Amino acid sequence: xxxxxxxxxxxxxxxxxxxxxxxxxxxxxxxxxxxxxxxxxxxxxxxxxxxxxxxxxxxxxxxxxxxxxxxxxxxxxxxxxxxxxxxxxxxxxxxxxxxxxxxxxxxxxxxxxxxxxxxxxxxxxxxxxxxxxxxxxxxxxxxxxxxxxxxxxxxxxxxxxxxxxxxxxxxxxxxxxxxxxxxxxxxxxxxxxxxxxx
Length: 198
Known about the structure:
single chain, two-stranded parallel ribbon, about 55% helix
């Protein structure tokens, strides 16, 4: 019953969000195109519910070039528009489409790259991947300054794999175990409050 109610909530909110925010989405897309060469949207393969890969959508915040999978501090690849979009979290708005099409939820464990999911312990993997990944979750709030933490590390990749990822995974597993519409609403309000403060 919870799954049905959660899905209905996701569909209604994402559809309303996309409709109401359409002018803003178009303005952001135009800004990105004017700011640097390349597409307005960034697409990447992530691991979804039950381990099924899917394509996540974000507004592009970096120049189109090869580089590390993780973003560290003031990454030189970040564009002028990208800095503001990242700071305000507006780069995440296209994920409302991913919510509407059913591969994501408004609230759920943030979807990871396949190579990081391979590091999940078996018990954690099953629990975290039992629910749809989300636009926000407790780990997103706890590690909102993740890029800065990685910038302070001598080996950012190792810091992410051995320190940050296990901590985020524990928070995601706890969420999956205790998820409810009430906790989802609380997390959405906390996320919106943090975005507005920024």
